[in-house]
Amino acid sequence: MSNLELPVLGQDGTAVxxxxxxxxxxxxxxxxxxxxxxxxALSDPVRLRLLSxxxxxxxxxxxxxxxxxxxxxxxxxxxxxxxxxxxxxLVGSERRGTWxxxxxxxxxxxxxxxxxxxxxxAGGAG
Length: 126
Known about the structure:
This protein has helices spanning 29-42, 45-56, 75-87, 106-116; strands spanning 61-63, 91-96, 99-104. By secondary structure, the protein is α+β, with helices and mostly antiparallel strands. Strand 2 and strand 3 (99-104) form a beta hairpin. The chain has 4 helices and 3 strands; from the N terminus they run H-H-E-H-E-E-H. It starts with 28 loop residues before the first helix and ends in a 10-residue tail after the last helix. It has a 3-stranded antiparallel beta sheet. 15% of the residues are buried.
């Protein structure tokens, strides 16, 4: 094995260009399935708010104990929504003692942003 370090894309704040925007070339089957899972996870208002809370939390990560208060749903429901976000590849998590901490995965957001990137000039609009 080599001691060569490989860079982790998206960690320096730059967007990761993993997929061409839809307006330039059609999505392949595998990419469509993967991206649809992310969009489906974000289609729920509670999950979208959870992602926003995590992303805007001081330090870029939030304890699950900080995420239950703003919602009118039970703690098990919040845990379910966090699991969906994690399985969709939108957030990472780590158990620290009795609490689990969550953070947004920048590369996942970059994939979604790159897919939806609008062309500089919209052709065919009339």
